[in-house]
Amino acid sequence: MHENPKRINIMEANTIYKGLEGVTVSETKVGFVDGEAGRLVYRGYNIEDLTEHSSYEEVAYLLINGHLPNAKEYQDFTQVLRKSSELSKEVVDLIWTHSESHPTSLLRTAVSLLGANDRRADHALDKDQKDMGMELVGKIPAIVSSIRRAKDGGKYVSPSPELSMAGNMLYQSTGKKPDKTSERIMDVCLMLHADHGSNASTFSSLVTISTLSDIYSALTSAIGTLKGPLHGGANEMALKLIMKIGKPENVEKVIGDMLQKKEKIMGFGHRVYKVYDPRAKILKGFAREVTQKNGKELLFQTAQKVEDTMIMKLGSKGIFPNVDFYSGMVYDSLGFHPDIFTAIFAASRASGWVARSLEYVSDNKLFRPRSSYIGERGPKEYIPIGKRN
Ligand code: ACO
Questions:
Q1: Which residues, judged by CB distance below 6 Å to any ligand atom, belong to the binding site of ligand 1?
Q2: Shortest CA distance to 28 belongs to which of 77, 63, 69?
Q3: pTM above the 0.70 mark?
Q4: Which of 38, 186, 206, 351 is 20 to 30 A from 47, alpha carbon to alpha carbon?
């Protein structure tokens, strides 16, 4: 009998790759993380060049379409984003009636509601998927900002046509037009978090889209996955630790005690980067700038001392600051409460999720891994409910 060689391979390979660690599940042209060299690349461009010369709108377009937009493409794309960032009454009502909910849960529900109200999602064609995906890239930041606004007790703010997406994120969350520096910092934060390899939330979006489901469902899955503290959330804990330490003089003792107890210091170490995370380098510059501007220099000095201490103690093991170490400090200075940090991450990552979902489904293969059954094989005698102990 001739058997399918691929099947034999699968049957024989009884190895379990817990958490799929080390398993490659797809090819991608969207982004590349070089953990040894400390490089992050979107479609061939270094993150440093993009954050210095570009904007989040251009980066989102690049990720989704594969090239930087020309003037006409940029104008059309920004129009879609701007239009999408005006939220419907249903979404505004949802946010304001559930303003006590966790921001990431509320964001996930809002995206799901958008999908339920969009008839294109019922039988999504390729073009619809892309259109809906691009609209989500505009809508998600507006939802996140409105969640912050609702939590602060303010009224819904419509986006301003004069502002960039980053500017509108700040405007829709505070009702005040941001200064140029804050708008630029927000813009860079959005660019830095837009895509990062085959992380759990991105993978989750691929699993959903691989069933030929719609892009709203893919992003709803991704947001639910991002919510867990092992994925989003380390920046909040890093910021709280720096605040708790309080001043540089306290660093050595607190960090020394924590390391002795084998506790993890949030904002340090990375599965892929074994050198300084390039995103952390960029954010550190902003953290220094904003803390100076807001009279919170002590916070930055304490963080710097934590960094020096950690590198001295664990640098030889490849433990350096990751993106989360300085991002919390930057978001804090922009007025965001820590419980919304993960939702801001989602606002940015939406473009990466959309880009990778569209790319995956264009050469689709349904995800269907196996698990090794280690339970009883039976057959056990079936006992009717009335006779069970
Ligand atoms: N604090 C203290 N010790 C650490 C830390 C840390 N943050 N990170 C790693 N180490 C230690 C490990 O315990 C290990 O020690 P050992 O040699 O005594 O066993 C050693 O350094 C090497 O660790 P790795 O194997 O390189 O780390 P791993 O790849 O398993 O973990 C992870 C990476 C999960 C990110 C880890 O560094 C960590 O928990 N960091 C804190 C949480 C965090 O900041 N997460 C955000 C990551 S970025 C993102 O998701 C957007």
A1: 231, 234, 264-271, 314, 317-319, 322-324
A2: 63
A3: yes
A4: 206
pLDDT per position as a tens digit, 305-330? 999 999 999 999 999 999 999 999 99
Give yes or no for residue 12 having a pLDDT over 50: no
Q: Are 129 and 358 in contact (CB under 8 A)?
A: yes
- Check if the beta carbon of residue 61 is closer than 8 Å to that of residue 68: yes
List, by residue range, all CATH 1.10.230.10 domains of the chain.
Answer: 234-333
End-to-end C-alpha distance for the chain, whole angstroms = 49
CA–centroid distance, 231 to ligand 1, in Å, is: 13
CB 67: neighbour CB atoms within 10 A? 10
Q: Are 207 and 218 in contact (CB under 8 A)?
A: no
Looking at 1.10.580.10, 1.20.1260.10, 3.50.50.60, 3.40.50.2300, the CATH number of the domain 31-210+347-361 comes to: 1.10.580.10
Q: Residue 81 Cα, ligand 1 centroid: separation in angstroms?
A: 37
Provide the 10 A C-beta neighbour count for residue 191: 27
| Atom 2 in ligand 1: residue holding the nearest Cα | 264
Q: 234-333 architecture in CATH?
A: Orthogonal Bundle (1.10)
